[in-house]
Design a protein that fits this description.
Mean pLDDT: 81
Distance between the termini: 32 Å
Radius of gyration: 22 Å
Order of helices and strands: HHHHHHHHHHHHHHHHH
Shape: globular
Low-confidence stretches: none
Structural class: mainly alpha
Oligomer: single chain
Helix content: over 70%
Strand content: under 5%
Largest sheet: none
Length: 485
């Protein structure tokens, strides 16, 4: 069947609206976390699953989504992803228990993993390479930045004026509108011929292994790090991750061609990103709890308080683009990580029971500027020297590292913070007062920020030790551009 002629710019608007939903949902929930915890009775340790269930399923199935989009049709998978995402959003809004919400958040992540790579594939196949595609991809990048900022603000508005359920309900009518628009305006291209194999086993094994690993880290707070239950669960998680590598080496159409990691620049960039991205996730998670639970900010005020983070990331990204050709990408990357580490250190120093927003802002600004510079430089390093046929795969691996690293980092830092808080409260005699509970919680937040700063510092050291100028020569010569993330 021949597709009717479509206006590529109208198709761009439709798929960008779908991507906007995915990006927005990655941040919109952070501001609503205290309200969700109060209504559904989440414990401090289980609250992180509201973020991590979405992140792990999104990251775990992202590469499979890209493969399916090429083979069964980009619009077909985009529509399926919008459907799954919208239904999951409705279930989230109707959730009456933490188990129901976490399950629906995982389903939402799966929908995002279907629609996001399909949307990007629509853009790259609809626009010819050249100025039009560059403009389209610039719009795509702007949606990513705008969606993050809008998520923080919209989360606060909806939570305060209506209720936290509406941060999910709002996706339903938008999703329905996108479906009808896509059916009319988006072409349904796909790869002709070739193998129809989907590496479902690889996607399931890596996602299951990561979920179990995060669960083992979280439960270690209750079971103990050296307990049989913790070690057994961690062993099972590593066995599943090892089986993923075994599957990828033997699959006729693997999610990840492991030979790609023989490129030093790609392997190091992804490994470092996996390590440091938890700092950003932890900043949003714990800073939101601090502002609302300690400083008594409303959800709306908290959303507004986070807007400088988006501005800082954009400032850092623009500065990095100008500085890479002047001082080299390695210098920009190291500096970005160290500035972000300093910001996290300031955040730890300025958060206190009687603190103020100006103290928080003093840490948020350098942290966000440093992360903006780090994002740009790491993306360049992760994609330099990659053959054109592997560009999509390299970008997909980098995005997966972001989601997986964020989830693992948040799990570790949240466990450390909760352990510190629980230990302080356990040493008290008698029932703790509200002031003592707040002081203990703040000490947990401070530890998480310090640990995140240490991870940033380790990332800077690894970049210095493992990468050489020859590994990034094309970037410094101005011959490389980042693949859209």
């Amino acid at each position: 069947m021949t597709e009717h002629k479509v206006n590529p710019w109208l198709a761009l608007i439709v798929v960008c609206m779908g991507q906007f939903m995915v990006v927005l949902d990655a941040t919109v929930v952070n501001v609503a976390l205290p309200s969700i915890q109060a209504d559904l009775g989440f414990s401090d340790s289980s609250l992180q699953w509201v973020v991590n269930a979405y992140t792990l399923f999104f990251g775990g199935f992202l590469l499979l989504g890209g493969r399916m989009a090429d083979l069964i049709g980009r619009r077909t998978l985009f529509l399926a992803g919008i459907g799954v995402f919208s239904v999951a959003s409705l279930i989230n809004g109707l959730a009456q228990s933490e188990e129901m919400l976490i399950g629906a958040r995982a389903l939402q992540g799966l929908g995002g993993a279907m629609l996001s790579p399909a949307a990007l594939a629509v853009i790259t196949t609809t626009f010819e390479e050249g100025s039009d595609r560059t403009k389209a991809l610039s719009a795509w990048a702007a949606i990513a930045s705008g969606g993050s900022a809008a998520g923080l603000l919209l989360g606060g508005v909806l939570t305060e004026l209506l209720s936290w359920e509406w941060i999910f309900f709002i996706n339903v009518p938008i999703g329905i509108a996108i479906v009808f628009a896509a059916l009319r305006l988006v072409p349904n291209s796909r790869v002709a011929g070739g193998t129809r194999h989907f590496d479902v086993a690889g996607a399931v094994s890596v996602t299951a292994g990561l979920v179990l690993l995060v669960y083992a880290i979280v439960k270690a707070e209750d079971w103990g790090w050296g307990s049989f239950d913790t070690l057994a669960l961690a062993a099972l998680a590593f066995a599943l991750l090892a089986s993923f590598i075994w599957i990828e080496r033997r699959s006729p159409s693997p999610l990840v061609r492991l030979s790609l990691f023989r490129m030093r620049s790609l392997a190091v960039a992804n490994g470092v990103f996996l390590l440091i991205i938890g700092g950003l996730f932890a900043m949003f998670f714990f800073a939101s709890l601090y502002l609302q639970n300690i400083l008594d900010y409303s959800a709306l005020t908290t959303g507004v308080a986070f807007l400088p983070v988006t501005a800082g990331i954009m400032i850092g990204a623009m500065a990095a683009q100008q500085l890479v050709s002047r001082v080299g990408v390695l210098a920009v990357m190291r500096t970005g990580m160290l500035v972000a580490a300093a910001g996290l250190g300031l955040l730890a120093a300025t958060t206190s029971v009687d603190g103020s927003y100006m103290g928080v802002l003093a840490g948020l600004l350098p942290m966000s500027i440093g992360m903006g510079a780090t994002f740009v430089s790491l993306t360049l390093v992760a994609t330099t020297g990659v053959e054109p046929d592997d560009a999509g795969l390299a970008s997909g691996v980098f995005n997966t590292a972001q989601q997986v690293g964020g989830a693992l980092g948040l799990a570790v830092l949240s466990t450390l913070a909760n352990d510190r808080t629980a230990g302080i409260l356990a040493d008290l005699t008698g029932a703790p007062t509200v002031a003592q509970q707040q002081a203990a919680a703040v000490e947990g937040f401070q530890l998480a920020f310090i640990a995140a700063a240490v991870l940033m510092g380790i990332g800077a050291v690894l970049i210095t030790v493992l990468l050489r100028r020859r590994d990034v020569a094309r970037i410094d010569a101005g011959e490389a551009v980042p693949v859209p993330a």
